[in-house]
Amino acid sequence: MYLTKEEELVLAGEYGYALQKAMEILVALGEVYGAERLIPIKSAQIAGVSYKNLGDAGVEFLRDFVEAGAKVSVYTTLNPAGIGDDEFMEKQREVLELYSSMGIEVTSTCTPYYGANLPKFGDHLAWSESSAVSFANSIIGARSNREGGPSSLASAIVGKTPEYGLHLDENRKATVEVKVEARIKTFVDYSALGYHLGKILGNDVPYIRGLRPESVDYLKELGASMAATGSIALYHVEGETPEYRMALSNDLETVEVDEDDIKVVRESFSDDWSGIDMILVGCPHASLMEIKEVAELLRMRGKPLRIPLFITASRTVKALSDALGYTEVIERYNGRIIADSCFVVSPIKGWYEGIATNSGKSAFYFRSFGFNVRLDDVGNLIKEAP
């Protein structure tokens, strides 16, 4: 991989240990994937924030960087933190303090684009949250590979990333055509479609025909579910996403999705309410419109839920919800908005037995953790819940 004179000096340690170690990570990654050079990035989004995932070894890795004087050189945000008991939270606070000392904005969300970390079309990024990578690539038209926590941190420190994968035009073209024959209308239909496509396509770049989403939230959920059950980091929807006109190639394999495919997914997450003791909305973190919908549905229900309803969201979106009165309504009906956290990366086994959710991503992870899971649109969940 070609390095500029300055990059060679960084790699040789002339600018300090922290930059040297970060550059070593990037050079090794670039050599593995055959990158020809490093390119500047506009922002980074770092995974590996929850102590549940990091463990003591991950904390020690961060301490080493901090002690070496590491500082990020581009705008950088974090993935959601975990929540747990007092001992867990003490470790979690240390993780956030370590990241903050490197100059990282401690806004812990999987939807950084709802806040200040909003890229524009064509920007190169080093993001490591799978649903955020999908959103940035597919819906915005920015460019990021699906980074790991260490590589995104290294890129944030150096301000560059190896030029390979989805940073290159030729790799952003569709590799498979998907014809959706099923009736895809609601939020949970998009969840189920994404769940199915991720399972059967792996890491393809699908070009999807036959969708007319009512909201960008539907596309957000489609991408998040595909990224959870597969490794899809970029998709194109005909007539909807910014690069669809240049994405289609000739002689692509065609995959059809019919009603039975969606039915199979929905029926696999139809556990009875007797085994459900919480409702979860906001995976990925909820938008303001999603929160507004929940508040309106609770008003229509007219009586508090007997089981708790949790909405996970960024602190930015929660602040708007507070100001607009949605939070007060939700709390009145036994709901709560939890900012900058995520149940998926929290040690909650034993707190609850089962979840009801509108998210295919949540359904996938919580079923793998051994929970009962009910997947349905949020309107049905609030109407039917005890």
Q: Major beta sheet, specifics?
A: 5 strands, parallel
The low-confidence parts are: none
Mean pLDDT comes to: 97
Q: How large is the radius of gyration?
A: 21 Å
- Which class best fits the helix and strand makeup? alpha/beta
Read across the widest sheet, the strand sequence of neighbours is 13-12-11-14-15
- Tally of separate helices: 15
Shape: globular
**What is the CATH topology assignment of the largest domain?**
Aconitase, domain 3
First-last Cα distance: 60 Å
Strand content: 15-25%
Helix-strand sequence: HHEEHEHEEHHEEHEHEHEHEHEHHEEHEH
CATH architecture of the largest domain: 2-Layer Sandwich
CATH class of the largest domain: Alpha Beta
Number of domains: 3
Task: Tell me the number of strands.
Answer: 15
Helical content class? 40-55%
Structure in words:
By secondary structure, this protein is an alpha/beta fold. The protein folds into three domains: 5-169, Aconitase, domain 3, CATH 3.30.499; 173-267, no CATH class; 269-384, Aconitase, domain 3 (2-Layer Sandwich), CATH 3.30.499.10. 44% of the residues lie in helices and 15% in strands. A five-stranded parallel beta sheet has the order 13-12-11-14-15. Strand 11 (278-281), helix 11 (288-301) and strand 12 form a beta-alpha-beta unit. Helix 2 (17-33) crosses helix 6, helix 3 (51-67) runs parallel beside helix 4 and helix 8 packs parallel to helix 14. The termini are far apart. The model has no long low-confidence stretch (mean pLDDT 97).
